[in-house]
Design goal:
The chain is built from 13 helices and 15 strands. By secondary structure, it is an alpha/beta fold. Strand 11 and strand 12 form a beta hairpin. It has a domain of 49 residues: Immunoglobulin-like (Sandwich). Its cofactor is Ca(2+). Belongs to the glycosyl hydrolase 13 family. One of its GO terms (biological process) is carbohydrate metabolic process. It comes from Ceratopteris richardii (Triangle waterfern).
């Protein structure tokens, strides 16, 4: 969900100054265990609340990596992990799902720097029902491209068709993207192809199910037969911009005017959202989270939810305005990316963030201003220049592009954008439309496979050799050289034919790959041995 900006600029739409309510988006609790742990059928593992919790505790401490183990011990010792085992839907027979088929286990855990995301929907996806089945039919193409994670839309029943005004969080059968069974079928197909699934988590706000005695829409229904997520005005911030009659504490972030903002300082809100997210993992099969509109609540709460659910991957959407000079983006966007860094720090690094700074700079740079791609310190100018391992780079999403086109990348330069993000540090995210509708599937796939072949990842080193109006040249890890821009004569920057070979080329770009054999990495101990 796009952020609200404090100012309007000719190149950035005025809608960012407020919310157009009509046009706007009116656990496996095992927490990312290795796929071997998941060969036990999901339903068969749900025995009893007490037995499950203690079995889970013993199992998880034996299988988690050191960081996860530490967080798990901390969580259990502080009673952060809810001992209530979710049973939101009637159980199928143990070990059965979809016509008696046992659901597959999860893919192996992906190294933090190796993720390559794919946004598996656009703004019009709800109108192509059932969307889950559409994507399931495309899993082979997604897998062939080398994608590691697919970001799926908000899964719950919602007031709006796109899912960004959720109401009954446990109700997955009234989503405009498909049914609960169709969602599980898609997740199973992705898991069988070695691909993880990211859920779009919308918890800044929530749409009321009914009105209170004063006419405020602040009575919430969770979508189960019990009281879980059945909330009242106490769950809404007391200073809500929606005029929802909230009786909770003050908002810890920016207000969202289209639905009541939730009070994340409330323990019951925290506990029941945690239970719901762990249910999405345990029963539905999600592996990680994309947190929507994170500017609406303090980053410490994103940290809390990550600690309690231990996603394989997490990313937050924090969209604020760039700084502008005479209607054009300023060269120095340090203030903009500092906001992203501060938010990441507020999560203790447990979540990455979408690199809106890089997007804004890159879509101006490809229009004859390649000098923008090098900051005053000689680094990439976006979040990826400061926190590359926490930056999720992207070209467009369902808000900026698709049919909304609120802040879209220049159409004829989209491939140049992918050449940049798929060869550079940061975690790249590919947009559904560009891959399946724009005829770029082959080129994007080739770039991803080149990235993997060269061993480039989110934390790779970069040296920028040229950044002028008509040319940009960068060397990544001494394994890839990238040239962008219309200038044909590279002069001394042209890679030699002995150590480099041309891997990919097209209009205004070329990418070379090192011919040197990969040498095994060696490690030194503190004594230099």
């Amino acid at each position: 969900m796009e952020a609200l900006c404090k100012q309007s600029h000719p190149s950035q739409p005025s809608f960012l100054n407020g919310i157009d309510i009509q046009g706007k988006r009116l656990g496996r609790a095992s927490a990312n265990l290795h796929s071997d742990s998941c060969k036990i059928p999901l339903r068969a593992r749900r025995i009893s609340k007490k037995v499950y919790f203690h079995s889970f505790h013993r199992f998880v401490t034996a299988t988690l990596d050191p960081r996860q183990h530490h967080l798990h011990q901390q969580r259990t010792s502080n009673e952060l992990f809810s001992k209530r085992w979710i049973e939101a839907q009637p159980l199928e027979k143990p070990g059965e799902m979809h016509g008696g088929q046992v659901r597959p286990g999860r893919p192996d855990r992906i190294a933090p720097a190796e993720h390559i995301l794919f946004q598996g929907f656009n703004w019009e996806s709800p109108h192509n029902y059932p969307w889950y089945s559409v994507v399931q039919s495309q899993v082979k193409d997604i897998m062939a491209a080398g994608i590691t994670d697919v970001w799926l839309p908000p899964p719950s029943q919602s007031v709006d068709v796109n899912g960004y005004l959720p109401s009954q969080l446990y109700n997955l059968n009234e989503s405009k993207y498909g049914t609960k069974a169709q969602l599980e079928g898609l997740i199973d197909a992705l898991h069988m192809s070695g691909i993880c699934c990211i859920a779009d988590i919308v918890i800044n706000h929530r749409s009321g199910y009914s009105q209170d005695s004063s006419g405020h829409w602040n009575i919430f229904e969770g979508g189960t037969k019990d009281e879980r997520l059945n909330w009242g005005p106490w769950a809404v911030v007391g200073n809500d911009a929606y005029d929802s009659g909230g009786k909770g504490h003050g908002d810890t972030g920016e207000s969202y005017g289209a639905a009541p903002d939730l009070d994340h300082t409330n323990k019951r809100v925290q506990d029941e959202l945690t239970d719901w997210m762990n249910w999405l993992k345990a029963d539905i099969g999600f592996d990680g989270w994309r947190f929507d509109f994170v500017k609406g609540y303090a980053p410490k709460f994103t940290k809390l939810y990550c600690e309690r659910t231990l996603p394989n991957f997490a990313v937050g959407e924090l969209w604020t305005s760039l700084t502008y000079d005479n209607g054009q983006p300023s060269y120095d966007q340090n203030g903009h990316r500092q906001v992203l860094c501060d938010w990441i720090d507020g999560t203790s690094g447990l979540s990455t963030a979408f690199d809106f700074t890089t997007k804004g700079i890159l879509q101006s740079a490809v229009c004859g201003e390649f000098w923008r791609l090098k900051d005053a310190q000689g680094k990439p100018p976006g979040l990826a220049g400061w926190y590359p391992d926490k930056a999720v780079t992207f070209i467009d999403n369902h808000d900026t592009g698709s049919t909304q086109r609120h802040w879209n990348f220049p159409d004829d330069k989209v491939l140049l954008g992918y050449v940049y993000i798929l060869t550079h540090p940061g975690t790249p995210c590919v947009f559904y439309d560009h891959f399946f509708s724009w005829g770029l599937q082959q080129q994007i796939g080739e770039l991803i496979h080149l990235r993997k072949r060269a061993g480039v990842n989110a934390s790779s080193n970069i040296r920028i050799d040229a950044a002028e109006s008509d040319i940009y040249v960068a060397n990544i890890d001494e394994k890839i050289i990238v040239k962008l821009g219309p200038r044909f004569d590279m002069g001394s920057l042209l890679p030699d034919s002995v150590n480099w070979k041309l891997a990919l080329s097209g209009v205004d770009f070329a990418v070379w790959e090192s011919t040197k054999a990969k040498e095994p990495a060696t490690k030194e101990n503190k004594n230099g041995i």
